[in-house]
Structure to design on (274 residues):
């Protein structure tokens, strides 16, 4: 069973090589690795060229943003299983072997999500994060979250959608999962730590620039799923579903209590640092 991994890269020289090596060093043998770079100005393209003989395909051409770059990569993908890895994250050693084993044992599942380490720019472990049980209702109310670098899907589930929405600048993966679910894809969870998800000062997540984009997407997501605008009652339901999430994902709740919310914790750290 071939697995296609797409990495999108733009000016990520600091982390890119670790990302690439994490895919090339997987224990699973049948991996198609596609790297997309729309025109980095640092040394990223030189790093990619260095691994040219180990990569299945390289795309060096301008695009309309991360979602467009991913669509270009997956148009060339030929695997039965798809996944994508941002250039500042990386996979743990046996991640793909575990994913393929899961899909083989669960032929009814179209999308599977595992868990991740949360690290900083020095590869220091900040905490762990765990994917939720996925549902459209939970997604509409913001309690159903999947860990992107630890999520993989069958190519058929991807082809039933229009791909990544190039207008979405904050949560293109989240919208893709919604589209898959709307097309009747079945979601599963793995009890495995599959990747390292990086938060640091210059990342979209770590910088705090994501706050307004996330708020805008959460409203868009709600309308897309529920077919209506939010009302006052929905604000109360937010708290109910958040409590439900804590009950159904106790390990993530423990991490939150012990270390604080992922993004808020890092934002506070940055403020203190400055």
């Amino acid at each position: 069973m071939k697995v296609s991994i797409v990495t999108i890269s733009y000016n990520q020289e600091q982390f890119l090589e670790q990302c690439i090596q994490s895919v090339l060093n997987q224990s699973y043998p049948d991996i198609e690795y596609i790297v997309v770079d729309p025109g980095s100005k640092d040394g990223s393209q030189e790093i990619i060229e260095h691994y040219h003989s180990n990569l299945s395909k390289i795309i060096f051409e301008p695009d309309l943003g991360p979602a467009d770059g991913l669509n270009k990569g997956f148009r060339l993908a030929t695997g039965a299983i798809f996944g994508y890895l941002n250039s500042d994250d990386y996979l743990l050693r046996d991640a793909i072997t575990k994913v393929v084993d899961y899909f083989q044992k669960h032929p009814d599942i179209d999308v599977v999500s595992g868990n991740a380490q949360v690290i900083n720019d020095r590869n220091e472990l900040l905490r762990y994060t765990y994917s939720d049980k996925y549902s459209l209702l939970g997604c509409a109310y913001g309690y159903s979250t999947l860990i992107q670098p630890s999520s993989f899907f069958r190519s058929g589930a991807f082809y039933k959608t229009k791909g990544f929405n190039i207008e979405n600048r904050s949560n293109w993966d989240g919208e893709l999962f919604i589209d898959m679910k709307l097309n009747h894809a079945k979601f599963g969870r793995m009890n495995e730590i599959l990747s390292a998800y990086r938060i640091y000062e210059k990342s979209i997540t770590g910088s705090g620039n994501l706050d307004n984009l996330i708020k805008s997407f959460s409203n868009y997501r709600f309308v897309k799923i529920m077919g209506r605008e939010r009302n006052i009652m929905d604000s109360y339901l937010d708290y109910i579903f958040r409590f439900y999430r804590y009950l159904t994902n106790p390990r993530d709740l423990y991490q939150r209590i012990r270390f604080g919310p992922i993004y808020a914790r890092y934002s506070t750290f940055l403020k203190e640092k400055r």
Remarks:
- The chain has twelve helices and nine strands.
